[in-house]
Amino acid sequence: MPFNRKILAAMSITLAGMAFLPTSSNATFTDPNAASDDIVVTGNKVTKEEISAFVRTTISTPKGGRHKGQYARFQGAVCPKVVGLSEENIKQVERRMRGVALAADMQVAAEGCAPNVYVMVVADGNEAISMLRKKRSRLFGDISHYERERIAKSGGPAYAWKRIQASSAESGVLQNSDDVSILPVDTPAKTYVPTLTSNVKSRIKRTVTQAMTHSFLLLEKGALVDLTTIQIADYAAMRSYMDTRDGKTAKAPAYSILSLFDAAADDGKMPVSISELDLVLLSSLYHSPADVSAAMQSSAMINRFEKELNSNQED
Predict the structure, then answer these.
(1) Quick check: 148 and 140 in contact, CB under 8 A?
(2) Is the CB of residue 71 less than 8 Å from the CB of residue 206?
(3) Quick one: 165 exposed, middle or buried, by C-beta within 10 A (0-12, 13-18, 19+)?
């Protein structure tokens, strides 16, 4: 069974007894009308310093720091899978998440694809993660036990983590791929995992990139009451397609959909959808060099940011 299917089966079994948001729940989700399938965003005037701060405080600082580490992203097409809502709301959220990816000029897999982006609505995020840690720890990949504990106790209402692997900058081969081959030998079968090789000889370019293979996001149902499926989908897309900070160390700007739950907690005005700057941030991440340091990636992202915003203003 392919790993993606194993994940889905594992979650269905492990979380089956937990309180997902049922179709008949009292929570209210507003169904967007047909016109809402279009990604309509509102522009914001920002300075270069604000753009730099948005990039720096939104994306998690990679292991090794900005000068040695790298920002991670999906190498291939994204395929969102939503669990825990009514069938109709699931369709709307998944469709909208696909739309956000397309608007950011990302690769999106065809319908019926093997999921690599999971969004789950649960009653209690801490309880759900604790259950997964005990019964399906493989879903966390090589995330340390300390980090798993931090995620579980982050306070919600959103709990997110990514499976990230080193990938060859030239071939795209993953260092610890879940897809393995059995070599045809006379001795007992051995599992072969491709090793990373590179001919790159540069002080700037790296031999590897950081590839997100799977993204997981748990949302507590109590925090979703009265939100629209657009708000849920846009927030889920931004939290899933990037390795973002959890909001406890640095709050997102009010114009970002990432401030959705911060605004709710502060009784402030919640963003109604993804912002122009959110989309440009996504687009910049996925169209900046992946084989350089995070510091160089962020510099390239800021430059693209300015060009995108200036181009939109001219239009």
Answers:
(1) yes
(2) no
(3) buried
pTM here is 0.80
DSSP H or E run through 164: strand 158-168
Cβ burial, residue 126 (10 Å; 0-12/13-18/19+): middle
Q: What amino acid occupies position 222? A: G
CB 120 within 8 A of CB 137: no
DSSP code of residue 153: T
Which tokens belong to 78? Answer: 């994204």
Q: What is the DSSP annotation of 72-99?
A: -EESS-B-EEEESS-HHHHHHHHHHHHH
Q: In terms of Cα–Cα distance, which of 301, 299, 296 is closest to 281?
A: 301
Query: Is the N-terminal amide bond of 157 cis, ω within 30° of 0?
Result: yes
Residue 19 — pLDDT band, cuts 50, 70, 90?
very low
pLDDT digits (tens, 9 = 90+) for 170-225: 555 665 545 433 334 344 444 444 444 545 555 667 577 888 999 999 999 999 99
Which tokens go with 19? Answer: 């309180």
Q: How far apart are CA 217 and CA 258, in angstroms?
A: 13
